[in-house]
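Section: Multi-chain targets

For targets with more than one molecule, the full set of components is provided together so that the structure can be written out for the assembly as a whole rather than chain by chain. Components appear in the order listed by the source. The example entry contains three components.
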Amino acid sequence: MDMNVSKKKLGIKERYAHMTRGLGWEPTYQPAEAVFPYDKYEGIKIHDWDKWVDPFRLTMDAYWKYQGEKDRKLYAVIEAFAQNNGHLNITDARYLSAIKLFWQGVSPLENYVVQGFARAGRHFRGEASRIACQMQAVDELRHYQTQTHSISNYNKYYNGFHSQRHMWDRVWYLSVPKSFGEDALSAGPFEFLIAISFSFEYVLTNLLFVPFMSGAAYNGDMSTVTFGFSAQSDESRHMTLGIEAIKFLLEQDPANVPIVQGWIDKWFWRGSKVLALVGMMMDYMLPKRVMSWKEAWEIYAEENGGALFRDLARYGIRPPKGWADACEAKNHISHQIWLLFYEYGGATAFHTWSPTNEELDWLSAKYPDSFDKYYRPRLEFLRDKHARGGRVYQTTLPALCTTCQIPLCFTEPGDPTKISHRETVHEGEKYVFCSGHCQEIFSNEPEKFVQSWLPVNQIYQGNCFNPDVDPTAPDFDPLKAVLEYFHYNLGRDNGDFEGSEDQQNFAKWRGQAGHN
Amino acid sequence: MSVNALGPYEFAPRDAVKNFHGNILVNFCWDRHVLVAAPFAVALPPGMTLRQAITTFIAPSIAFHPDAAKIDWNTVTWEKDHLPWQPDIDKSLAENKVGHKDYLVFITPGLNGLNSIGL
Amino acid sequence: MSKVFIIVQANEEARPIVEALVQDNPNAVVQESPAMVRVEAEGSLTLNRSTVEALTGQPFDIQQLHINLISISGHIDEEDDYLTVAWNN
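Its structure, encoded as tokens over all components, is:
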């Protein structure tokens, strides 16, 4: 006879305990040290992996359920966007430069993070941490895929979206996020965790996905805002894991504190440099702007990051070394990066342009301490020059920082007309940097950064031409040959927005939207 | 400090001078003229004079700046890797002891950039 | 004290979450931006399951928050009946 047993539903904490504890085993064929070779050499000491707790207590069953629901919502929007010519509802085709840069430079980074978390999940010993890493690896794969699916619709109509995988490994400005990602991927699993989960996801990712994606909505890009916020709902879990991971490491052993502090110093600075690209996207590439880069920095880095570091002070953690300089730079970096890309606009696979008067006025209002004095005169000079037929296209290659790989366009803190540069001689070889912080990152791990694949230096070494070109030919144009090696469609992907095919097509198609 | 690694971790520098086909890489920055958005890195034969390097590569690259035409290269003052430096611009880079990846700053007194504030 | 926040998408599923946060956290401030709503408060914010359920007349699982969540700041304490974010300073 069957008995009716009333089963009490498990609470969230019990469920989490059942789904994340006691799932591992002691290896017997091989010693544990051989199975987990990478979780000791960084010097991090873990005494009790069971102290790792996901504050959301998400278990695999709930994970699949909610992720499935998110994807169904997302794909319904993407489909509707494609079917209804949603691309014609954006404010202006200039906006697409931001999406091109996102697609070229951010989406492949998601793919790197997949690899990093898959590896971290393999090499940590604690089951709960392995599950958390597995979920994050799947999340990041989802981000790469949903971005691919969303943005492929733009690729049907506009230039610059076509060769992402090829460009990622070659194009000069993409070496900035690529080298950032490879630095993290080639670090030990704990450094990777602090680099990505904590320094990037917790301290900085809000700057990328919150105000920028809200900006996408403001500019009528339903597709991007939907994948952006869908990704960000995962990111908010990752951020929570980031703060949990750092507390876990700090509480496990006092010897972990100085190691973790060093990683925070390094990765906060590296992340803030990569995000200079996002600053430019927010301040210059969105025809309608939700907030300035400076305002976003104040809310999400200074206020939120400030609260975080006040909280971590009890463990002996201080704010990152580059904090004050990165905060000072909020008045400058978006403008300096935009001017750099404008002048090198012949070599970018997105368009640049001169801001309108209304846009200049907006920037003046948002940057009262810097814009009118240091940046408006430059932008107006270049605009006037273009109007007189002399659009500036710089063709002499820029000096790159050995660490962050950004051209040396940043100025000394507190001195906005003095280009900042540093040099180090290591084992008889000279290295150039954009800042004391990038110099220090090099000095801590010189053997790593002597390998930097600096695009400009590679071009001069002759490593960036297609195999069939003849550099000795009388009509050889090295810059053109390099851009062909990048797979640019010259005259369509690059150059000023004014007169571009994207500009013309958008105007034509939008005109057709209202009548036959 | 050095890289924390499980095994030997040694790699040759990727930008050693031997990889540049007889050239050296030289960085040029025009002091306090940030309208030129970034300093230049140029690959040059060490036997080339500094004047030839300027005339061939640097002068055309900064020509869009309204101060550029007014530069008297004979009165320009220089820094090399942050230190004052007095080259003979009619001598070769090698004779002036310009090394691979040196960072040269040229200062043009009296030319103060857009609005005379270093732009 | 430091500020905590919960940001959700501006949609119908998230509306009762915002309303519940406002109802249960008297010091909560709501800021609306394109496509998103940010609720912030000094010190802490609590989302109660019962409040959401009373507003919608439907069962609500605290973890449903994930579907429309954009960002969250502070230490999280999640139980079946509530979710709290707070800073320890």
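DSSP finds 23 helices and four strands in chain A.
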